[in-house]
Amino acid sequence: VPVISDSQTTLSLLRDRAERFGDRVYASFDHQKLTVGGLYDQVRQTAARLSIQGISRGDRVAVMLDNHLDNLVLFFALIWVGAVHVPVNTRLRHASLDYVIEHAEPRMIVVEESFSGLFADISGADGIPVRTRRLSTGFDWGCGGPDNTPDCPVFDPEDIRATDVLFIMYTSGTTGPPKGVMVTDKMLRASSYASAQSSAAKMGDIFLVWEPLYHIGAIQLLPLALDVGVELALVGRFSASRFWEQVSSVRATQIHFLGGILQILLRQPPTIFDRQHRCRVAWGGGAPAHVAQDFEARFAIEVRENYGMT
């Protein structure tokens, strides 16, 4: 049984990898690439902007964003200032959204510009500042300049401990209202380690990230990419019809699955991309033996099943 360090943290891992492997690609999205060093610099700048906005240690920040590189930067920036990240399902509307916001009691809400109108009728959001991310210009933080200008004073990060809560992840609520699971730094790194083992991750691998960044399936990969040295290839959302084309395009070596994903992909008509890829491992939960066998035979990929709970 591995021992998950109490002295190392997700943030110290970022700093170490930025110093040692700054030029390594950390993530990509829509033909844009973000190196580990670039991530570190943007995290520091974003943390400074959050601080100017009054966000500090222990504050909860609700985040309702799509998959993109800015979302990754914000995740680490919130850790930098010691805030608690509250990822919000981008499909929530009306009473479901109101419940999460009212229950979480965030100090700030960060949303895509296209989602900002959803909060007009959310009573739990009354009086809470809403900061938007515009598709063309990024986050609207203020500080007197465009988002990509380092015009806010940067500062050293908070002293984050292994037992500190990094984010509160709301469950799907299948047996009642969603429960806010408090995920500590150590818990995230344990999940990351288990994911690396389950997926046979090694330096230079590329993980296709189709799961939304409000889901543990995606978030658990953020420390993994730093620790092992893999690249995260983000896509906007899961698309059964375009899945293998995306796998081939980003040169993914690992894919993750949940629930009925394998069955959905098996029901798709055959294409030239079924085996025109570099992917060697599909890992996740929900792979009955006959489905795994059919999947391996058709797509020439090893299926590895594992189980985990947030």
Automatic annotation (TrEMBL):
GO terms assigned for molecular function: ATP binding; long-chain fatty acid transmembrane transporter activity; long-chain fatty acid-CoA ligase activity
Residue ranges occupied by any AMP-dependent synthetase/ligase domain in the UniProt entry: 15-310
GO biological process, one term: long-chain fatty acid import into cell
Keywords assigned: ATP-binding, Ligase, Nucleotide-binding
One GO cellular component, as annotated: plasma membrane
Residues of the signal peptide: none
Similarity section: Belongs to the ATP-dependent AMP-binding enzyme family.
Protein name as it appears in the record: AMP-dependent synthetase/ligase domain-containing protein
Species of origin: marine metagenome
